[in-house]
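User: Here's a chain of 777 residues. Predict its fold as tokens.
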Amino acid sequence: MIALAGSYHCAELTSSDGTIEFSGRLTGTEALIAEMRQADPEAAPDSGADDATLALQAYRIWGIDGFRRLAGTFALAVSDADRLVLARDPLGVEQLYFRHDADGCRVRYGSTIAAVLADGPEPSPSPRVVHRYLSTGALDDEPATFFEGVERVLPGQALIAEPSGVRRQAFLRAGTELLRPTPRHVSDLLRPDPSAAAADPADELRRRLTATVGTPDQPAAVVVAGPGSAALSGLADTALSPEYPDHAQASTAPLPGRVRLTADQFKADWSDFIRVQEEPTGSAAAYLHYRLAQDGADLQTLISAEGAAQLLLGTAPSANRIAGAVLLAGAAVRGGVRAVTGAGGSGRTELSVSLLSDELRSRYSDEGPAPLASEPGRLRVDALTATSLPYRLRSLAKTAEHFGTRFALPYLDLDTVRWLLGQDDETLIKLLDGPGQVDSEPAQADWLMRIKNTVYDVFMSESFANRGYFDQTAVVESFEAFIKRPTGPAAAVFWRILNVELWCREFFDKAQPAPEVKIKTDLEANEGKELDLVLPNGRSVRRYPLRTELFSASDDLTGRVVERVGEFFQTLGGTTDEDHRAATTGRWYFFISEKIVAITQGRSMFVWDIKVSWAARVLSRFVTRTPTGIGLGSPFTMQLAIGEAGLPRILFASAGSVVGKLAGKSGVFYQLVGHDVRAIDGPTEYSAYPSNVSAKLPPKDPDKVAAELTAAIRPLLPEPYASTFAGTVVMDANDLGRNALGQDVPGEPQVYEEMFADNPLGQGSQQTPLAIVFELP
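Assistant: Prediction complete.
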């Protein structure tokens, strides 16, 4: 594969009579040469001429119309004395892009968007294309790309750049030609073969596929995946087939010729995958292409049945499960971005809300979905030329170029497509949908479920909220409903949303340098915090935050705490630093974050496990969120508050809060609601897993927990620390406020809240939920 890249300027003319850049592979070249000899014997090339020479001579003899005589796949750029001509094969197997420079006179072109944008201005996304993709699922079926100002040359089209300007000219419209009952042009390579009329259809298909593939560059392998792949067997000595270990039917160990695809590997690959694809993709099929080429990087040719599934559209779905799924996806994406996340026996939709921002929807409200054709022939042709295949061909081309291999696609020979379209449904099913078919692509719903924590983290992120494309609250609520009842149509919606966000991060968000990972010692403060704090009464305290591994509901809180406190005093006893020795002679306290107490009590739960009521959704919208704590501003946390205090008390406190605000008082809601509702908290992106995807209740019996921890810690302490240990405080703290929930030490909670005035445990991913606090002499 040759990557095209170049430019044309209207004022930079040459005396050349034509040069060409060519990518692709032509078929039926002997017939083309014979036709050239009839039209212009002097210009006709010799037998055995390379594909680039053939394409250039076709252009010299017939002009733009010469491209319709080329069978096979191609993207090309012809430079004449006064113009540039770009052209692309009728089905768009090869990719070709261009953009105008700011002066309006230069055209930059290439087979990748990266080549077109090289040395150009900073790229920006096209909001209209993003909206069209999100709301209809449409991809690669119009000139505009996701990058503002970058356009694609459409299949079967030439782009002509001249001093007078740039224009497009179609030389072959595949959709029209494939539906014609007879060829339009005597020299078309689409003409049927009368001698094959009486042949066995399976034999005829095999003959056509073999002729199209020819002698593939070696080593080669057949991709055994999806409809039509069985007919490719024998075209290469090696076979590759996908395997999905996430599913029960997968083998326990990798087998020869198997390409493994997992949700976790997709997550690990997605940065490179998205950059290779250059634009968002329509389904996980694109990742299948990526993995096939990645594992088959030592192969020169991968022979694929791409296109066969589209030819089966409109046949009985029961006879072809995969084609039926393609049809369902096509219908689903044209339903707009509405997360239909499940229905009961009555068919009533459980949740259906717009997930796009008001600004994006209002700006492009006239962008409507294109209806799917009802007539099977038109449905199949539309799938091949507009609604299904184009983005898959883009994926194949980008992946092949990245890994240095080539995908041979014998089902996309126009003559073969035309012949297959002429078969009845029963014959098509026999030819393309044989028994023992291997799944052709991952199940998106299953994958989204397997990486739901990561996906949820993306949807909760600040970048997602500030993107301007989405209604973050609606997306999060809908994803929660999807997790409870996953469906294929909803998975297609969330795949698109995830793709857009990750694509924006990859291409437009400024790369942030990876933070230096520094694990603090027990005798250091968290970054940005101080060990010592002066209290309002003039006394000072020394706070030592203790880092721990993450806690879970199955952990023994007391055992882990005792072990960690013991490690601290071993470190303290071994230090020679006189400052630490002098600071630790007075009375001291053990502080523990209420979060880990709640987690180990099983009072922290994933948001998708919380059944949210209508009242919780409505009430949460009236709560002000802050960057340092979501509080009750989430339907999940509001539901927990309703469960703790009861809906009547929540409504009473809400009414009191309104009255309090009118009187200039704040905090009235929490004063009235009681039940430590203030300590309920929800997911925040800065928190360590699982807190970033969980909502939690306040710990149960925090005073009792404090007393139990004190009783467990004291006997294991060395002197003099056992004698100076005053007890334990269960603290709820963030960067906005503190709340001592439980204690077994004397004095008012305010005394201990003041010791945490600057939240020494930190607000992010420090993983320091414990602290030893000494009163300084």
